[in-house]
Fold these 4 entries.
Entry 1:
Amino acid sequence: MSIQPIVTDDGSPSFRNNNYDEAYHSKSGAIEESFKKYALPLKIWEKENPVIYDVCFGIGYNAAAAIDVFLEKGKGELKIYCYENDPEILKKALEINPEFKNYELIKNVVDCNQQFVAEFALHDYPITDADILTRGPKAWDDMLNTINICKFNIGSGATGIVTHSFYEALNHAYHRNLYGNSVTEFAHVKRLFSDAWLRIMGMKLFGLRATDYMRVASETDKRYMLFNPIMKMKVAIQGEKVHEHLFDIIAAKGFEKDMYFEQAVSELVGFPKLEGTRHVNMALIAKLIPSYMFMPGQFEEVGRIKDNRNDDFMFHQGKTSGYAKTKFHDYNPAYNSLAHLPNVKVFLEQIQAYKEFLMVSGTDIAKQMMNFDFLLGVGELFTMVAYGHLIIESAKMEGVSDAVMNQMFDLFVRDFSAYAVELYGKPVNTDVQLEKILKMIKRPVPMIEEFEKVLKDEVYSLVDVYKQNP
């Protein structure tokens, strides 16, 4: 072993690196050294709200000693930024339990790459008024409003990950020859690459448009309250679907350690699962079905927001009550603007069937949706309506062609039908509900020449355009 445990003269544990023939702390005492040479000479009690940059964090003794000193003598808030380039010594830090006050490092809860997410216990840790930002109902509102913003990044992260994976899979498949043909010429591979690219396009277009509505938010315009949960949940799950498509193409190559794909698959799978993402966010989204589907409001048209305005409202979102009364603009104008496309027309028929399902369900659907399994089925279909709505708006701003949009809604018609089949199987449905659900199950209009053109011009034209640095 290159790193071996030792015990210093004050009884505190440390380590010795045999590769460099050096110990991490002096023989006289590891904890003693951390206090006498680092924590006390800093005199952090002389500054209010001190900030420490702990470079070469090691096993954390210096930072821990600084915390102990600050808790005893300090003023305000202490921030410590820790940097360590050696993942081996970070793992070793978990093997010891030094006697510092107030907290105990238990373990690193993840074990991939160089990430370190600590589980720790606090023992009689002092909390002062200076540590408390808000109290009472406002504290609850601030907590939820913070999540409203932060959850957005989950979808953005998923979009970036699958974009890297897409290029890697495409480059690999195009240059791989089987039975005298490039892998990209097989019919099933064509469909998988087309669906993967169209899903990524949808993820990007939705994310751009959802950003617009978040940046124009105000006390009278809280449409982001629907679009942000969709960004977190729907877009992240779409990312998983993209990886499913690509994994069927890249196959064993995707397991090799020098591929980005291997890391991407293992990390992305957690995105939709964070904090029970699908379940929690679908419960929020479902509350907005009546308002969005049947009671649209009037809003000024919002363009693409690219300026450097200060997004003040995001930090003053106010009370979280009245969520279900949030108003949205009518989705029909966006869909009707592309109603000349065969597959958008089919999708509109599915939306109408969904509305009929909601109407025949009446107020009883509220009781049915107490069954969370049923709620998820109803919510998935609703999410498709809002998802397509913003994608159409965004596509017009970005100049996306009719051919691409028609192929995208070929995919969405299939998705909508799949969700409808899933809902059909729920045991709490009534006979009249089942009749309406069957009307949602549609076949997209096949347009083979258009499919081949989009595949050639938009998807396969990306071969070797991007390669990630090793």
Note: The chain has a mean pLDDT of 89.
Entry 2:
Amino acid sequence: MITLQTWARASVSVAILVTAAACGGGDDGIPDPEQGGVRGKCFADGTCNPTLTCVDGICLGGVVDAAMDATGPVDTPPDSLVCDTQFEPNETTAAAHALAFTGTAASLMNLMVCPTGDIDMFSLTATGAGTSIVATVTYTAITPSAVGAVAILDAAGVLVASGQVTGANAQTATASGRAAGTYYVRVLGNGTFRYKLDVTRTP
């Protein structure tokens, strides 16, 4: 009898393990993205399912991150995940995209840092002494654990303000009391992510 009971318990344990493995996903019970599918891992040969593209080991494309889509100036078409944008190349101060202000504010939506290592640079002009520049980046990670960062540089490309965490997925850089001249907002990070950029310039 003891032998039969031990075998029965072992069988139950094996069955539970097999069932859990078949379900996939993490401890929360949510299945992991299908390999080759949107946000899933790329296949071993670096490819994905049709219409998707392998970027940093993750398959991108299709309708995702809809919460970040909004009416307004965009860097990529809504619901599109592609690395090349209308503002590229803009990795350097010389190639920076000039921000268009309405009053004291400028905003760009559906921007992308893609692929990993990409840098987005934007320019603006302070017209008087004592200008305050505030730049906020709000991002949505595409590759796992991607984090965005924002900074403000002066005309020589020297850092004048680093971003500080202002939310779970947001950073803000503030440069106060700046002299008249050209300034740059730099966005970069680790991994690939979609983001929204808001910049204010006062006075």
Note: The chain has two domains: 1-27, 85-202.
Entry 3:
Amino acid sequence: MQNQINLLPNEIPTKWYNILPDLASNLEPLPPPQGEQAKNLPNLMIGKCLEQEFSDQTWIDIPKELLEIYKKAGRPRPLFRASNLEKKLGTPAKLFYKSEFFSPTGSHKVNTALAQAYYAKKEGFKIGEIPIIFYERKYGESKLSTNVIREGLWVLWKMRFRQ
């Protein structure tokens, strides 16, 4: 029984799966933004991300440039077989989970953040940092290691001068 699946870089998926078209019933549309909120929306939201969010396409192509960025960020992560859960449920299905303990950030949010930064740059957004103060947390460390921050800045730097 294979307990771990590791995709090679050339096996990384080239499309995102969008669950919306496969839902049994359509979701209620969100109410349109009103007033000041509507005026600021183009300045706050990344158009391509919104387009994908409400797409009726089941499969959405991942741009080749972004796939290269994912590979440099150590994607994809391995899948692990949940054989104990399979036994507990008594299911013939093979169940897998993705663990981020190999990830320097300890998070899958890197996938989303890289895609958002990629599309924001393409749409001309200025990428910068806005400091956030956590009043409840006076001490502690960031979840991001210095190497991850450095690599993220390096990727953005290369994107800037590639155009």
Note: The chain has a mean pLDDT of 79.
Entry 4:
Amino acid sequence: MPKFYKGICECCGKKYRGRGKYYCSNRCAAKIENKKKSKKISNSMKGRAVRGKGWNHTEEWKKKASQRMKENNPLNNPETIKKIKKSLKKRWDLIGRKSKRIRNTDCLLWRSLVFERDKFIC
């Protein structure tokens, strides 16, 4: 059998009788616990820079980063270009086959009949 507590809620100050040891409801418990957690987090973050703010790159850094990107560009590698062209060719072949199938008059007629039957709803 569950234990019932009597007391005054620490959040809202109401008298209660229930399963909660310190709070009358889950709502009151969540309010207080969330405040405690957020205060703990804010104390731990004091003195730290906010992510993304206050980070200005110097012109020297920007030039070095640009140079790194130019040197490590995968499109300068002929093997990478071959792989990309091969994968695109496969995609274009699939699209071409699909478009030929749709252009077929029998297929078009069948599609339109099915759409009419279903009242143009998928």
Note: The longest helix spans residues 78-103.
